[in-house]
Design a protein that fits this description.
The protein is mainly β and 138 residues long. The chain has one domain: Thrombin, subunit H (Beta Barrel). Helices cover 9% and strands 41% of the residues. The chain is built from two helices and seven strands. It has helices at residues 2-10, 84-87; strands at 13-19, 40-50, 57-61, 64-75, 96-101, 114-120, 130-137. It has a six-stranded antiparallel barrel with strand order 1-2-4-7-6-5.
Length: 138
């Protein structure tokens, strides 16, 4: 438990993890078109963001060159930040991690950025946090 407490102490930023909403979204009265359904929040609470490598990879999306940066986002193993849906699990390749606030000594450019959750980091016997490998297209 001391390891989990130490990991939580390092989580001084705040993030929100969502997945796309299901079903039909609301009707926009101005356009007459349906909008996307509201995203479903799985987690909202403390987190830690790290960049494991300094080199960004190149990606080609529809003929457009993008720099893709890896990040590791850590959240507590359990706690009040998880919604009922979040306690059931956070699906890789579907969830979005948005950084809401950054600690005062952190990088202010991080606030408001979004990352796609790619895969969980290796699971282990005595975990101190849930670590997620994420990517950001810049």
């Amino acid at each position: 438990m001391r390891g989990q407490a130490a990991a939580l102490a390092m989580m001084q930023d705040t993030c929100e993890i969502t997945v796309p909403g299901a079903g039909r979204g609301p009707l926009n009265p101005d356009t007459g078109q349906r909008e996307a359904p509201a995203p479903v929040t799985l987690y909202s609470g403390p987190c830690r963001v790290r960049q494991p490598n300094l080199a960004a990879a190149e990606a080609d999306a529809a003929g457009q060159a993008l720099a893709v940066s890896d990040r590791i986002v850590s959240i507590p193993l359990a706690g009040d930040g998880y919604t009922e849906q979040g306690r059931a699990g956070i699906p890789a390749r579907k969830a979005t991690v948005r950084i809401v606030t950054v600690n005062p000594t952190g990088d202010p450019e991080l606030a408001g950025r979004s990352f796609s959750y790619e895969a969980p980091m290796a699971q282990q016997s005595y975990p101190t946090a849930r670590r997620m490998r994420c990517k950001e297209a810049e």
